[in-house]
Amino acid sequence: MSPARRFLALRWAIVGVWAALLTARVIVVAVSPDADLTFFGIAEVVSIALGFAVIAVAVVRGQSMRRRHEDEALALAIRRIDPTVWLVPAAPTAELRSSIETIRPEVSLGHRVTWAFGATEASLWELEERRATRLLVIRWSRMVHVGLEDVQGDGRSWAIAMHYVRPDDTTAVATFFVRSAPGSRRMLGRGPRLERLVADLARERIVA
Questions:
Q1: Claim to verify: residue 10 and residue 50 sit in the same structural domain
Q2: Cβ atoms of 67 and 179 closer than 8 Å
Q3: Helix (H) / strand (E) containing 43
Q4: pLDDT over threshold 80, residue 123
Q5: Rounded CA gap, 188 and 64, in Å?
Q6: Domain contains 175
């Protein structure tokens, strides 16, 4: 059974329990008007609270699934263009937003982007109205350095920083946070996964 069907079954089970309690309460009141209904009141409150909790979980899960589907749709579109790239789900820093606005004033980056790393270049992509849009391309031959940067200075906001040379020979840097997985809003902190990614990018720069 799929997660969606399990949630649906659980929701209807809670509704069924609440309806049964309400029916039992009506019957008890009809048979014995002076009966103590405290148990029914508590049970109904618990079932209602549980129902709201299930709805809240379903909403959060639905949003997560929607984000994941959007990331997967973007990944599929990118791989149709170049099936050899490896993809990294990311989130833009303020610096990257400013850089993209300078290059393309009509573009306002969303909260989720994807980096595609291929044999000759790194490219920044975003899903815009169900269309994959490439916003930035950096050739490995123009890449100077790849490292980690604490963008907030608090030891928790670690971003990957790619220093490169633009076609007009001016220097620039593209910084981005790495999301833990497609569809996720959680960012990776400094640790083995982030450091391994930096090492892989640095190796791509050298090999290319």
A1: yes
A2: no
A3: helix 38-81
A4: yes
A5: 17
A6: yes
Are 16 and 90 in a shared domain? no
How far is the C-alpha of 165 from the C-alpha of 156, rounded, in Å? 28
Residue 140 sits in a domain whose CATH number is 2.30.29.30
**Parent domain of 12:** 3-66
Residue found by looking up tokens 């039992």 in the block: 24
**CA 116 – CA 108 distance, rounded (Å):** 19
Task: Reply yes or no on whether the pLDDT at 25 is more than 80.
Answer: no
Q: Tokens at residue 176, please?
A: 């981005």
pLDDT tens, 180-203?
Answer: 998 888 999 888 999 999 998 988
Bridge pairing between strands 86-92 and 121-128: unpaired
Please check whether residue 94 lies inside any domain of the structure: yes
Token pair 């980690």 is at which residue? Answer: 148
Starting from the edge strand earliest in sequence, which strands make up the sheet with 171-178, in order? 131-139, 121-128, 113-117, 86-92, 171-178, 158-165, 143-150
Q: Which helix (H) or strand (E) holds 62?
A: helix 38-81
CA gap 161, 143 in Å, rounded: 11
Span 116-130, mean pLDDT? 89
- Pick from 122, 132, 135, 123: nearest CA to 70: 132
Looking at residue 186, the DSSP 8-state letter turns out to be P
pLDDT value, residue 71:
87
